[in-house]
Protein backbone atom coordinates (compact mmCIF):
# COMPACT_ATOMS: atom_id res chain seq x y z
CA UNK A 1 0.00 0.00 0.00
CA UNK A 2 1.42 3.39 -0.92
CA UNK A 3 1.95 5.97 1.81
CA UNK A 4 -0.91 8.37 2.53
CA UNK A 5 -0.15 12.02 1.57
CA UNK A 6 -0.68 14.78 4.09
CA UNK A 7 -4.14 16.37 4.00
CA UNK A 8 -4.51 19.90 2.77
CA UNK A 9 -5.08 22.57 5.40
CA UNK A 10 -8.00 24.86 4.73
CA UNK A 11 -8.58 27.88 6.92
CA UNK A 12 -6.94 26.12 9.87
CA UNK A 13 -9.74 23.52 9.90
CA UNK A 14 -8.05 20.37 8.57
CA UNK A 15 -5.84 18.28 10.88
CA UNK A 16 -2.55 16.55 9.89
CA UNK A 17 -2.90 12.92 8.88
CA UNK A 18 -0.54 11.93 11.68
CA UNK A 19 -3.07 13.27 14.18
CA UNK A 20 -5.97 11.75 12.33
CA UNK A 21 -4.34 8.47 12.70
CA UNK A 22 -4.55 8.68 16.29
CA UNK A 23 -14.71 30.41 21.62
CA UNK A 24 -34.15 57.15 36.46
CA UNK A 25 -35.36 58.44 35.97
CA UNK A 26 -33.96 59.23 39.34
CA UNK A 27 -36.72 61.03 41.02
CA UNK A 28 -35.26 63.26 43.74
CA UNK A 29 -37.75 65.65 45.27
CA UNK A 30 -37.47 67.54 48.50
CA UNK A 31 -40.43 68.56 50.64
CA UNK A 32 -42.66 70.86 48.59
CA UNK A 33 -45.65 72.92 49.56
CA UNK A 34 -49.08 72.05 48.25
CA UNK A 35 -49.08 75.12 46.02
CA UNK A 36 -45.70 74.27 44.57
CA UNK A 37 -46.90 70.73 43.87
CA UNK A 38 -49.90 72.12 42.04
CA UNK A 39 -47.80 74.48 39.93
CA UNK A 40 -45.41 71.66 39.13
CA UNK A 41 -48.18 69.31 38.04
CA UNK A 42 -49.66 71.97 35.77
CA UNK A 43 -46.30 72.74 34.17
CA UNK A 44 -45.09 69.17 33.82
CA UNK A 45 -45.33 67.67 30.30
CA UNK A 46 -47.61 64.70 29.95
CA UNK A 47 -45.95 61.36 29.07
CA UNK A 48 -46.18 60.48 25.41
CA UNK A 49 -47.98 57.36 24.24
CA UNK A 50 -44.69 55.78 23.21
CA UNK A 51 -43.18 56.37 26.65
CA UNK A 52 -46.02 54.46 28.29
CA UNK A 53 -45.39 51.25 26.37
CA UNK A 54 -42.38 50.07 28.32
CA UNK A 55 -38.99 49.06 26.90
CA UNK A 56 -37.97 50.09 23.40
CA UNK A 57 -37.19 47.59 20.67
CA UNK A 58 -33.48 47.91 21.41
CA UNK A 59 -33.95 46.18 24.75
CA UNK A 60 -36.59 43.67 23.66
CA UNK A 61 -36.35 40.18 25.10
CA UNK A 62 -34.12 37.82 23.13
CA UNK A 63 -35.80 34.94 21.32
CA UNK A 64 -32.91 32.64 22.20
CA UNK A 65 -31.08 33.41 25.43
CA UNK A 66 -28.19 30.99 24.84
CA UNK A 67 -26.95 28.41 22.32
CA UNK A 68 -28.11 24.79 22.52
CA UNK A 69 -25.69 21.96 23.31
CA UNK A 70 -23.78 21.95 20.00
CA UNK A 71 -22.58 18.35 19.85
CA UNK A 72 -26.13 17.02 20.06
CA UNK A 73 -27.46 19.59 17.58
CA UNK A 74 -26.57 17.41 14.58
CA UNK A 75 -28.28 14.02 14.51
CA UNK A 76 -26.29 10.81 14.61
CA UNK A 77 -27.58 9.81 11.18
CA UNK A 78 -26.35 13.09 9.69
CA UNK A 79 -22.92 12.69 11.27
CA UNK A 80 -22.67 9.13 9.94
CA UNK A 81 -23.69 10.22 6.44
CA UNK A 82 -21.42 13.26 6.25
CA UNK A 83 -18.39 12.12 8.23
CA UNK A 84 -18.08 8.32 7.92
CA UNK A 85 -16.05 6.88 10.77
CA UNK A 86 -16.53 9.87 13.09
CA UNK A 87 -17.91 9.48 16.58
CA UNK A 88 -21.41 10.92 16.86
CA UNK A 89 -20.47 12.67 20.12
CA UNK A 90 -18.15 15.07 18.30
CA UNK A 91 -15.72 17.43 20.01
CA UNK A 92 -16.94 20.70 21.50
CA UNK A 93 -14.97 23.74 20.39
CA UNK A 94 -13.38 25.98 23.00
CA UNK A 95 -15.40 29.14 23.74
CA UNK A 96 -14.71 32.16 25.91
CA UNK A 97 -18.40 32.68 26.72
CA UNK A 98 -20.70 29.70 26.29
CA UNK A 99 -23.76 31.89 26.86
CA UNK A 100 -22.95 33.60 23.56
CA UNK A 101 -21.09 31.17 21.34
CA UNK A 102 -20.72 27.37 21.23
CA UNK A 103 -19.64 24.92 18.57
CA UNK A 104 -18.80 21.29 17.84
CA UNK A 105 -16.68 19.51 15.24
CA UNK A 106 -16.48 16.04 13.72
CA UNK A 107 -13.65 14.72 11.55
CA UNK A 108 -12.50 11.36 10.30
CA UNK A 109 -10.27 9.68 7.75
CA UNK A 110 -11.86 6.55 6.30
CA UNK A 111 -9.65 4.83 3.78
CA UNK A 112 -8.34 7.72 1.72
CA UNK A 113 -11.39 9.95 2.23
CA UNK A 114 -11.16 12.74 4.77
CA UNK A 115 -14.17 14.73 6.00
CA UNK A 116 -14.56 17.61 8.43
CA UNK A 117 -17.79 19.11 9.76
CA UNK A 118 -18.29 21.83 12.31
CA UNK A 119 -21.33 23.72 13.56
CA UNK A 120 -21.30 26.92 15.62
CA UNK A 121 -24.05 28.98 17.26
CA UNK A 122 -23.67 32.68 18.03
CA UNK A 123 -26.42 34.41 20.02
CA UNK A 124 -26.91 38.15 19.48
CA UNK A 125 -28.75 40.51 21.82
CA UNK A 126 -31.58 41.09 19.33
CA UNK A 127 -32.96 40.02 15.97
CA UNK A 128 -31.88 43.38 14.55
CA UNK A 129 -28.27 42.82 15.55
CA UNK A 130 -28.32 39.32 14.09
CA UNK A 131 -29.80 40.66 10.84
CA UNK A 132 -27.07 43.27 10.56
CA UNK A 133 -24.36 40.71 11.23
CA UNK A 134 -25.84 38.36 8.64
CA UNK A 135 -26.16 41.16 6.09
CA UNK A 136 -22.51 42.11 6.54
CA UNK A 137 -21.55 38.90 4.75
CA UNK A 138 -24.13 39.10 1.99
CA UNK A 139 -21.43 38.96 -0.71
CA UNK A 140 -19.97 35.76 0.71
CA UNK A 141 -22.38 33.33 -0.92
CA UNK A 142 -25.71 32.67 -2.56
CA UNK A 143 -29.07 32.51 -0.85
CA UNK A 144 -30.02 29.10 0.54
CA UNK A 145 -33.68 28.22 0.86
CA UNK A 146 -35.73 26.73 3.70
CA UNK A 147 -33.06 27.07 6.40
CA UNK A 148 -33.86 29.35 9.32
CA UNK A 149 -35.18 32.86 8.60
CA UNK A 150 -32.50 33.45 5.97
CA UNK A 151 -29.37 31.63 4.87
CA UNK A 152 -26.53 31.75 2.38
CA UNK A 153 -24.11 29.14 1.06
CA UNK A 154 -20.67 29.35 -0.53
CA UNK A 155 -18.36 26.61 -1.81
CA UNK A 156 -14.77 26.83 -2.92
CA UNK A 157 -11.95 24.58 -4.01
CA UNK A 158 -8.34 24.86 -2.82
CA UNK A 159 -5.38 22.98 -4.23
CA UNK A 160 -2.13 22.56 -2.32
CA UNK A 161 0.71 20.26 -3.31
CA UNK A 162 -1.58 18.90 -6.03
CA UNK A 163 -4.15 17.82 -3.44
CA UNK A 164 -7.64 19.30 -3.71
CA UNK A 165 -9.95 20.14 -0.83
CA UNK A 166 -13.45 21.47 -1.33
CA UNK A 167 -15.31 23.34 1.40
CA UNK A 168 -18.86 24.58 1.88
CA UNK A 169 -19.77 27.29 4.38
CA UNK A 170 -23.44 27.83 5.19
CA UNK A 171 -24.57 30.63 7.48
CA UNK A 172 -28.18 30.78 8.64
CA UNK A 173 -30.04 33.23 10.86
CA UNK A 174 -32.83 32.09 13.15
CA UNK A 175 -34.23 35.10 15.03
CA UNK A 176 -31.31 36.49 17.05
CA UNK A 177 -28.94 33.56 16.48
CA UNK A 178 -26.44 32.88 13.70
CA UNK A 179 -25.71 29.25 12.82
CA UNK A 180 -22.58 28.55 10.77
CA UNK A 181 -21.80 25.14 9.26
CA UNK A 182 -18.48 24.28 7.61
CA UNK A 183 -18.15 21.02 5.71
CA UNK A 184 -15.14 19.96 3.65
CA UNK A 185 -13.34 16.94 2.33
CA UNK A 186 -10.49 15.47 0.31
CA UNK A 187 -9.72 12.19 -1.44
CA UNK A 188 -6.07 11.41 -0.81
CA UNK A 189 -5.95 8.54 -3.30
CA UNK A 190 -7.16 10.45 -6.34
CA UNK A 191 -5.95 13.82 -4.97
CA UNK A 192 -9.41 15.06 -5.85
CA UNK A 193 -12.24 16.43 -3.70
CA UNK A 194 -15.99 15.89 -3.36
CA UNK A 195 -18.20 17.88 -5.70
CA UNK A 196 -19.64 21.29 -4.89
CA UNK A 197 -23.10 19.70 -4.73
CA UNK A 198 -21.90 17.07 -2.26
CA UNK A 199 -20.39 19.52 0.22
CA UNK A 200 -23.16 22.08 -0.30
CA UNK A 201 -25.97 19.59 0.30
CA UNK A 202 -24.10 18.15 3.26
CA UNK A 203 -23.72 21.58 4.85
CA UNK A 204 -27.42 22.28 4.29
CA UNK A 205 -28.42 18.99 5.92
CA UNK A 206 -26.33 19.74 9.01
CA UNK A 207 -27.65 23.31 9.14
CA UNK A 208 -31.27 22.12 9.13
CA UNK A 209 -30.46 19.82 12.05
CA UNK A 210 -28.79 22.68 13.91
CA UNK A 211 -31.65 25.15 13.39
CA UNK A 212 -34.16 22.51 14.50
CA UNK A 213 -32.12 21.90 17.67
CA UNK A 214 -31.97 25.64 18.35
CA UNK A 215 -35.72 26.02 17.98
CA UNK A 216 -36.38 23.00 20.16
CA UNK A 217 -34.24 24.55 22.91
CA UNK A 218 -36.47 27.65 23.15
Can you walk me through this structure?
By secondary structure, the chain is an alpha+beta fold. The chain has a single domain, classed as Jelly Rolls, CATH 2.60.120. The protein contains five helices and seven strands, in the order H-H-H-E-E-E-H-E-E-E-E-H. The protein has a seven-stranded antiparallel β-sheet with strand order 1-2-3-7-6-5-4, sandwiched between helices. The radius of gyration is 25 Å and the shape is globular.
Task: Pick out its properties.
single chain; 24% helix; 5 helices; 218 residues; 7-stranded antiparallel β-sheet; alpha+beta; Jelly Rolls
Tell me the radius of gyration: 25 Å
Low-confidence stretches: 1-12, 14-58
Helix content: 10-25%
**Structural class by sheet pairing and helices:** alpha+beta
By DSSP, the count of extended strands is 7
For the record, the count of structural domains works out to 1
In the CATH classification, which architecture applies? Sandwich
Q: What's the helix-strand series?
A: HHHEEEHEEEEH
Q: How would a crystallographer describe the biggest sheet? A: 7 strands, antiparallel
Number of helices: 5
CATH topology: Jelly Rolls
Strand order of the largest sheet: 1-2-3-7-6-5-4
User: What best-fitting shape do the alpha-carbon axes yield?
Assistant: globular
CATH class: Mainly Beta
Distance between the termini: 51 Å
Mean pLDDT: 81
Tell me the strand percentage band.
Answer: 25-35%
Amino acid sequence: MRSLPLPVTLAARLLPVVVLACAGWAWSTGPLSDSADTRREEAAPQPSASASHGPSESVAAKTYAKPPAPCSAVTGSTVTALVPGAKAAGKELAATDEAVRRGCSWSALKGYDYRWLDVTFEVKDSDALAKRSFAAGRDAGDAARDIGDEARLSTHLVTKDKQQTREAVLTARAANTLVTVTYNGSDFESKGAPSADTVGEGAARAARDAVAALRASH
